Amino acid sequence: MDKGIKLEFMGGKIYRLYVGNSDRFDIVRFISEIYRDSPADFSNVVIEVVYDVNHPLTSKDKNFIKWRVRSFTAGNVNVTFTENVSTSKEEDMQKVIPLRRGRDEEKVLSSGKIFIEDSDRDVEGLIVDDESIRFLINLGTMRSGNEITSDDGVIIVGDVHMGADIYSEGPVYILGTLSGRIFLMSSKAYAIVKTCEDGMIVYNGKAYECGENDEWILFLPNGEDIERYTGRIGELARRVKKWQEEL
C-alpha cells in the first residue's frame, strides 16, 4: 500500500487521516485498502479527514467520500472533515505522494457531447443530456477490475462482469447482464437491470442481491428490496414514473 497518505490512531474509535493534496479518489482508495486489510480494526470507527487549506475538498467531494466509504464498509466507518490551515504547499510536496493521477480528462466533441477518457480504468463513455439528468453511456462490457464513477446517471450497453463496480449518484440502467456491483450514492438514484446473475446493488450501506436469471429488476431507494418485473416492463416503467412524481 502506498504510504503517502498518513493515518494516525487518536485513541478509542477515532482515527485521523492526513490527505494533503490528494483528491477524493485517492482518499477513498486508501480507506478501502486499509479496511479490506483489517476490517475488524475499523468496526464502528470515525476517520477524521484532515485536508490542506491550499487543496480544499468541495462539498461534492465530501459527500462522495462519505457515501462511498459508508457503502463499502456497510456503515462501519463514518467520515468527518477538518481543514488544516498550518500545512504549506512545500510540506505537502514532501509528505504526500498521490495514489493515482487526477480527475478524468474530459474532451468536448463537436457534437456537444463529452467523451470520457480514463486510462486507469480502461472504460470509455459518452455523457449525454436529458431534460434534467446527464448520463454517462458505456458501450461494451465492463470486465473484472473495471470501475465507473459518475456524478450523473449511467447507462451500460453491455454486461457487467463479477469484479466490476459502478458508483453513481443518478439512475443506473444495465442493458445486459449484471454480475458485478452497483453502488447507488444518493437518495435520487435507482437501478434498472435487464438480466441479473448473482449481481448486487448497494444502497446506504446495505447490499441487495439478485439471483440467477432474474429479468427486468428494479431497485428504488425507498424500497425494502429488489423488485422483479419479468415480462412486465410496462409495469416497471409505470412504477418508476410514479416514484419520480412522488419525489
3D architecture notes:
- The protein has helices at 24-37, 59-72, 89-95, 233-246; strands spanning 6-11, 14-20, 45-52, 77-84, 105-108, 114-117, 125-129, 134-139, 147-150, 153-157, 165-168, 172-178, 181-184, 191-196, 199-203, 206-210, 214-219, 227-228.
- With 247 residues, the protein is α/β, with parallel strands linked by helices.
- The chain has two domains: 6-95, Alpha-Beta Plaits; 105-246, Pectate Lyase C-like, CATH 2.160.20.70.
- The longest helix is centred in the N-terminal third of the chain and has 14 residues, at 24-37.
- Residues 87-131 have low confidence and may be disordered.
Q: How many domains comprise the coordinates?
A: 2
- Ranges where pLDDT stays below 50 over 5 or more residues in a row are 87-131
User: Sheet with the most strands?
Assistant: 9 strands, mixed
CATH architecture of the largest domain: 3 Solenoid
Computed structural class: alpha/beta
CATH class of the largest domain: Mainly Beta
- Compressed to H and E, one letter per element, the order equals EEHEHEHEEEEEEEEEEEEEEH
- What would the principal axes of the Cα set say about the shape? elongated
Write the layout of secondary structure elements.
Blueprint: E1 6-11, E2 14-20, H1 24-37, E3 45-52, H2 59-72, E4 77-84, H3 89-95, E5 105-108, E6 114-117, E7 125-129, E8 134-139, E9 147-150, E10 153-157, E11 165-168, E12 172-178, E13 181-184, E14 191-196, E15 199-203, E16 206-210, E17 214-219, E18 227-228, H4 233-246
Parallel strand pairs: 2-3, 3-4, 8-10, 9-11, 10-12, 11-13, 12-14, 13-15
Antiparallel strand pairs: 1-2, 5-6, 6-7, 7-8, 14-17, 15-16, 17-18
Helix pairs in contact: 1-2
